[in-house]
Amino acid sequence: MPTKIVIGAQWGDEGKAKVVDYLTLKADVVVRYQGGANAGHTVIVGDTEFVFHMIPSGIMHEDKACVVGNGVVIDPEAMLAEIDDLEGKGFSVAGRFFVSHIAHMVMPYHKALEKASEESKDGVKIGTTGRGIGPAYRDKVERTHGVRVMDLLDPARLRDKLRASINAKNEILTKVYGQDPLDVGPILDAYVGYGERLAPYVTDASVYLNQAIDQGKQVLFEGAQGTLLDIDHGTYPYVTSSNTTAGGACTGTGIGPTRIDEVIGVTKAYTTRVGNGPFPTELLGEEGERLRSLGHEFGATTGRARRCGWFDAAILRASSRINGLTSIALTRLDILDELESLKLGIGYRYGEQVLEEFPSDPQVLEQCEPIYEEMEGWLAPTTEARRFDDLPPQAQAYVKRVSELSRAPVSLISVGPERESTIDID
Ligand code: IMO
Ligand code: MG
Description:
Blueprint: E1 4-8, H1 16-24, E2 29-32, E3 41-45, E4 48-52, E5 65-68, E6 73-74, H2 76-88, E7 97-100, E8 104-105, H3 108-119, H4 133-142, H5 149-152, H6 155-176, H7 184-198, E9 202-203, H8 205-214, E10 219-222, H9 248-251, E11 262-268, E12 271-273, H10 286-295, E13 307-309, E14 311-312, H11 313-323, E15 327-331, E16 341-350, E17 353-355, H12 362-366, E18 369-376, H13 393-406, E19 410-414, E20 422-424
Parallel strand pairs: 1-10, 1-11, 2-5, 2-10, 5-7, 6-8, 7-9, 11-15, 14-16, 15-19
Antiparallel strand pairs: 3-4, 12-13, 16-17, 16-18, 19-20
């Protein structure tokens, strides 16, 4: 039974949750391995829309298990709110939802520090989601003040850790940012309470997942964010603080790379980005507005308007290379239905040079002008298509060109938000 990783191939919001929800039909276990409540994964089942920030999107399938791995930074308040929401809508998670005992926690001071940093006059403004992601990973990597899931289950240990940590954070909050200090008491009480409620789900996720694979179960890894938001391979510093790329699935769960069979890169048929940072094929003005309104491109986590632009094949080639993509899932093809003509970015002009590869130097990227190829639009609805041959010829040509330029075959095409609106080429 193949083990599959689903990753975002662009800057996030590619429609990963829809693809994961569809692939979960054939899977047994769905796993999140990095990021935290910065993710906004939307699944539509019938008339109901669910947006998941912490829990794997596969949770809607009642016979499947869902795991949150060690690489995720857990916001327990957000996680418990999602559990309550699911149970309120009749989806039980007991006995099939698991959280790694060694995952790190997002604490209130992480959010306070992030807000203060983003609002301060000095330093880079990332345009984060405000979920405390960067400061939580900083504590993990710095090692002195990281709080893990296992600490929540031991109130005495948690109290000692929080006292030390909050003392240190208050120094920064008050002296660097001129903010009020935080109290240990209420934070400790809240997190002891979260620990009690999360305790039934806590497990050694590496043991659980390796046993599942040994038993021939199909495990699906659900990436959050996208390749260009990866802390190492993305458009640094305008990135998130985790490895969003396929390698993160191993380090973020405790399985070995030899256990992975497929890596599926999810990409929109165009490009979007939220937050700051370079975006060569961005459409400013009316064209960008049109794409934004056709695609309802507003963030699922923060509600911010997403920046929109043409498909950029150089990004997909980088994604293909960094993640070792075995195939592409092309989403939101239907959003292009009304456009008379389409542009595809095939590379960049940088001064006198022509670049085929996505540049990793942000200063170079800032000065890159995309080189476009133009294709005819299909001006016909595609949402009812269920087989590749159902697509208008111009749409077929577009998909084929995307695949060719991206150097990966297309295994799935999404032509609408519902589970059924999917063309399964495999
Ligand atoms: P999903 O999983 C799109 C962006 C933020 C910001 C940068 C850093 O729904 O695709 P952070 O809060 O992570 O420190 O913000 O990353 N970002 C996302 N953009 N989709 C996401 O998640 C994102 N998660 C973070 O806008 O530019
Ligand atoms: Mg999102």
